[in-house]
Amino acid sequence: MTSPETSLDDARYDFHMIEQRWQPVWADKQPFRSCDVDDERPTKYVLDMFPYPSGDLHMGHAEAYALGDVISRYWTLKGFNVLHPIGWDSFGLPAENAAIKRGVDPAGWTEANIAQQRTSMERYACSFDWDRVLMTHRPEYYRWNQWIFTRLFDRGLAYRKPSLVNWCPFDQTVLANEQVVAGLCERCDTPVTKKKLTQWYFKVTDYADELLDGLETLRETWPSKVIAMQRNWIGRSRGADVQFVIEGRKAPIPIYTTRPDTLFGATFMVVAVDSDLAAELLADTDEATKAEFAAYAEKVKGDTEIERLSTERPKTGVFLSRYAINPVNGERLPIWASDYVLADYGHGAIMAVPAHDQRDLDFARAMGLPVRTVLDCRDDDGNPLPDPVESGVATVGDGTLINSGSINGLDKADAITAIVAELEKAGTASASVNYRLRDWLISRQRYWGTPIPIVHCDACGEVPVPDDQLPVTLPPTAGLDLKPKGQSPLAAATDWVNTTCPTCGGAALRDTDTMDTFVDSSWYFLRFLSPHKSDGPFDVDEAKKWAPIDQYVGGVTHAILHLLYARFFTKALRDMGMIDFGEPFTALLNQGMVQMDGSAMSKSRGNLVSLAAQLDEFGVDAIRLTMSFAGPPEDDIDWADVSPAGSAKFLARAWRLARDVTSEPGVDPAEGDRDLRAVTHRTLSEAFELVESFRFNVVVARVMELVNATRKAIDTGVGAADPAVREAAEVVATLLSLFAPYCAEDMWSMLGHEDLVALSGLPEVDDALLVQDSVTCVVQVMGKVRDRLEVSPNATEDELRDLALASPTVQRAMGGAPVRTVIVRPPGLVNVVVNT
RNA sequence: GCCCCCGUAGCCCAACUGGCAGAGGCAGCCGACUUAAAAUCGGCACAGUGCGGGUUCAAAUCCCGCCGGGGGCACCA
Q: Rounded to two decimals, what is the model's pTM?
């Protein structure tokens, strides 16, 4: 007699025990290594965005890695050699700030966090290839940032220029345009100001057209939202450059406009107050104007981005006492300087057409400048729109040209074509394209980043550090003050800064800035292909084998920044001949965020859910399953709305199926119950398509149905010994291995298998089992359901029509009215339409 | 201001892309098992798809207009 404690029948699902059972097995077998050179399986590269090591993993990581793992494990099951690597984006401000706050070494802090995250990832059963780990703060990684930098420098894609830059007064560092969110520093929410500095840039704008047009090729496989955001960000606009002669200046100056059709409506010109052009025009004007301008320029400089971006901000400016000549009619236009014109867009100067541009109208009204209407604009009913002078609202839409000389009577499109052609002939205009996108400012005045590999030599200028002197390693923090102070902490490392010029051997100084950490993440996906390579950033042949990435998984927070930069790097590396593709991420999945009670989790809100506590309470599998089952992957999950306890309950229910199966491994399923087999095979066949379209929540629901059907078969149907029950339990284990790897392995092993279910492959779908004996055909009369018929799935249209019309309930519903038409959609639907 | 996405049972979500509104789950209720509870098993109930029009034999699905929620861009000429 068996005691209740040891009886298999009474064995209980104990996730703690199961986790402890499988962790050492996986650690030993390393089932997800992908570097076996003899592996002949086709390849898939699945990549989760690598984490920043700012602490232990949190709920957001748990969602991202759960979903990425479903995809990765699916392709492994499907028979692919899947590359699913992980690393750490380990340079950046948080480590440095922690170092400043607690006096610890940023490297030590970073490595400790990485160790903790790695342990958590292993517990979380992430199917990573642990032989390919990379960390961007290690010299063996950032060396290749420097190497790539020098290549970009050689090609003119990395350059230094003085410019007004975004400046965070709190972090005391410059920020890329992309890191300024609504006028605030992305990191610390301090209002951003402008500062004139000489900084390093990557010439992203060289690829503006390709970055935009390349989005077309991603239309099917990237979220349309991300494509729209990138398109918006690049902001291509087509228009014309028009040359305006300036009185008292030799060369004319170009302005950019998208509306050359409104040239006759120009009544003044505006130059950006902070542009070189304004300064130049000012030089030849009177002292009073100079003084007024100087005061204005000073005031503008002190304004924060927030103030500058405010829409209610009244228009301000200074008349420069200079005049431009309108090329279409020879009119004298006063030239003003204002901050509403941007120095770094177009040519830093505009023609102002107040009647048909709201900003120009606001300015004209503030300064008492004339307004001339040159478009006859109508509303939807054909009534003329109110005069901008009276209404204060510029008419910015299409319209028929008036008061416009040669182009009178034309519509917008024709007028643009005509006037540009006319001016082109005269040599005073040309078609032109502009972008909202700016070059990428990569200099950072901080310690914890990649040193810029440039030596400044009085004799030779900017000299890139030669390959054999890379990496330029960070000096030790000892003796350095890492606190932000507007200058890089590296400048204080005198021994490090003072060097010799690689070209002439004379005394020279190292560049003391470090690179934006987005440089690190712009090519890390290539480093994963050969992470230990010591004579190049990545192996070209490995790149041919694996890249580009088949499936990228990560948060939508990186929709612009990281993805745009990575695309730029990919195109630049392609043009260097190192890779043969231009888009790094063939497909992209954006997972949503995990929230709590309707808002993002944060310590300050007091709604932080601890991942570790959740894992302790419900188990890894239940948390992973909850992440997959909560809804579509791209939707946010509110943790208050989902039930990890329910997930755990379901896993226990599934696990008990394996426990209850009494047949031996290898029994022929064909001898099993056909009805259960039909459910099993339908589940299987649907699951493939559902996983591939990322409908993980539906897959889980289907597996739940299969579990329910199998339970029923065991308890009240064919019984636990039926081969179909074993088949069903095995399919449950296989499919669950995508979501709940511990439970799945334990089931697989209970079912008598020696191998790992994660590597066992997907069973074949038996199409014969998908065919149903009969289907329910719904019969409608005038769209209302009146009867249901059990029919053969092969019934023809004629048969169905006759059957439907013969039905007594249908005839009653028709009430004797003559049939107009009968819509038949075999085998499921007949709709009888009658004359009424 | 411009552009985009989403509104289906109390809650999270399905619905072959125009064809029976309901797959799965949570919460709820009832029953079985139990001395009792937990666990387990079985069952039940709940919306006519945000609102108003339109197209169609047929609309959650397509079109138009509102309402509500979310997101992106925004002095880019």
A: 0.92
